[in-house]
Structure formats: C-alpha cells, structure tokens
C-alpha cells in the first residue's frame, strides 16, 4: 500500500503554488532536476499524472488539484495543532490577485496587514488562475474581477468601478461628461492583446453596437495602456480603478457594465486578511 509522507505533501504544495519547477526548486533549496525527479516519482507511485504542460504553462490535472488541496489542508491542520500548543507556525497567508488589483486596490490593506507583523506571500494571476489557486488551497485569499461569482467559493464584493474612456486632453471626447460606445465610431483604440477578458468584452460590446473601430496598438497591463494614451497613440477603455495623471482625462462609458472585484476564499482560510480587505470600503460601494 502506497503511503504519502509529510515531505511529499510539502514539496508538492510548493510546486503546485508556483506551477514552475525553477521557482519551486529555489524555494525548496533543491536543484531543478532533483525536484523534477521527485514529482515524477510521486506521479508513478500514485499512478496519476499530477500536471500537464500547455504551451509555456504547467497546469494541474484533476488529481493534481485534489492532491494540492489535501496537502494545503494538512498544512492548515498542522498549523492549528501547533497553535493549540502556543507555537506559532511560520506558514504565511497566501494572497493571489491580478496586477491591476495590486496596483490600485490592495496596496494599503497589504501594508496594514504586514505592519501587524503578519507574514504574507503574494501570487499573481488572472481570474481563472486566482480561482484555481483558491480552490486547490494554493492561496488562502484571492482578489479578482468577476462577471458572475462562482457558487463553490465564498465571494464577497470588494468594490465596483465604472468602465471609463481615457484620452488626452486634446481629444475630441475629452470634455464630455460621459460617452456611449457609438461615440467611438472609427476610433483607433489602445487595447489589451487578443484573448484577454477585457479585450473580448469590449470587442463584443462594440460589435453589438455596430461600431467600426481599429487597433492603434496592443498593450499588456493597465499602466502601459495609460502610457500609450498619454503619448497620443489613441484613447482606451479601462477599468475605472486605473489611476491617471492630469494629462489624461477619464470619461465614463454609459453603456458598459461596471467591473466588480470580489474577495474570494474557501471556508475560514485567511480570515484576518479577509476582514482587513472588507474594511477597505463598504461592500457594494462604487468607487
């Protein structure tokens, strides 16, 4: 009968968190080939593939996700037991979020949490990766924008933001109090790359309205979009949480839905961090 030892669980939990052999090996203080061999042997002993390679990314299989969840649950149980003995476990709280959330929403809560002497590990990922990390226990808490919150996780509204058009002050729409999508007829827009959720939503909305438009430039990340707008390459539609300088005007787009950010968790994981995030502002308040 095959047995899983604590070290197997610890190693796989680190690998599952990073989904990257190089970074996981650095954290575990082992060589990358040694870690690769250990994970391969674990797969052989279990008789199941634990991850698959998709392009440049490593994704956990169903068996891998269940093993990661088990490993993280066991770590939590050990932490709780040590706490009953008055021993504080070194395991940090793990928060995962996208770059926009870190840049514009989470700076102050993170500073306050760390100022309390709490250890915090940060991961980055899009909405799908954030939900996956919370589901398999790799992360205790996630913050991400969601259209429809999943029913299998605890989701609490952190805040909502209008979608806004950002332009240079000399653009024809810069002085408008609000715009509609039809006002973007024949505009060359600064947009995220193909396949990004924001790009897909915007393309569908423009198509539904019969608006002709073109791509001025594709840019990865809100800050680069703002940079290109500031240079005069073209306007962009962004999440209203994005901060801009005085040289860039923000005009709400009336016929696009607001972007809603949620704090995502499972059970009582990361309770203190969730409480701190919830105190950031009243739930449901537009900002």
Automatic annotation (TrEMBL):
The keyword Cell wall biogenesis/degradation is assigned to this record: no
Range of residues in the leader sequence: none
SUPFAM superfamilies (alphabetical): Periplasmic binding protein-like II, Winged helix' DNA-binding domain
Key word DNA-binding present: yes
UniProt-listed Gene3D superfamilies: 3.40.190.290, Winged helix-like DNA-binding domain superfamily/Winged helix DNA-binding domain
Keywords: DNA-binding, Transcription, Transcription regulation
Domain annotation HTH lysR-type: ranges: 4-61
InterPro entries: LysR_HTH_N (IPR000847), LysR_subst-bd (IPR005119), WH-like_DNA-bd_sf (IPR036388), WH_DNA-bd_sf (IPR036390)
Similarity-based family: Belongs to the LysR transcriptional regulatory family.
Stated name of the protein: LysR family transcriptional regulator
Species assigned in the record: Kribbella yunnanensis
């Amino acid at each position: 009968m095959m047995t899983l030892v604590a070290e197997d669980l610890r190693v796989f939990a680190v690998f599952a968190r990073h989904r990257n052999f190089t970074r996981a090996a650095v954290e575990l203080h082992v060589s990358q080939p040694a870690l690769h061999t250990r994970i391969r042997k674990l797969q052989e002993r279990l008789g199941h593939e634990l991850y698959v390679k998709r392009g440049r990314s490593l994704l956990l299989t169903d068996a891998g996700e269940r093993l990661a969840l088990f490993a993280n649950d066991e770590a939590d149980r050990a932490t709780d037991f040590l706490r009953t003995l008055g021993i504080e476990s070194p395991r940090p709280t793990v928060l995962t979020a996208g770059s926009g959330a870190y840049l514009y929403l989470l700076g102050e809560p993170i500073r306050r949490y760390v100022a309390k002497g709490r250890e915090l590990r940060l991961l980055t990922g899009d909405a799908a990766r954030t939900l996956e990390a919370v589901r398999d226990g790799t992360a205790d808490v996630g913050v991400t924008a969601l259209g429809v919150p999943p029913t299998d996780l605890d989701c609490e509204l952190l805040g909502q933001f209008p979608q806004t058009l950002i332009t240079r002050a000399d653009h024809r729409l810069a002085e408008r109090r609000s715009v509609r999508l039809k006002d973007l007829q024949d505009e060359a827009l600064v947009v995220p790359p193909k396949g990004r959720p924001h790009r897909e939503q915007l393309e569908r909305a423009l198509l539904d309205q019969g608006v002709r438009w073109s791509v001025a430039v594709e840019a990865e990340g809100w800050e680069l979009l703002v940079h290109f707008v500031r240079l005069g390459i073209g306007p962009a539609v962004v999440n209203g949480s994005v901060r801009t300088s005085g040289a860039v005007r923000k005009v709400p787009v009336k016929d696009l839905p607001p972007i809603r950010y949620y704090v995502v968790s499972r059970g009582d994981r990361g309770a203190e961090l969730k409480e701190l995030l919830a105190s950031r502002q009243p739930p449901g308040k537009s900002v």
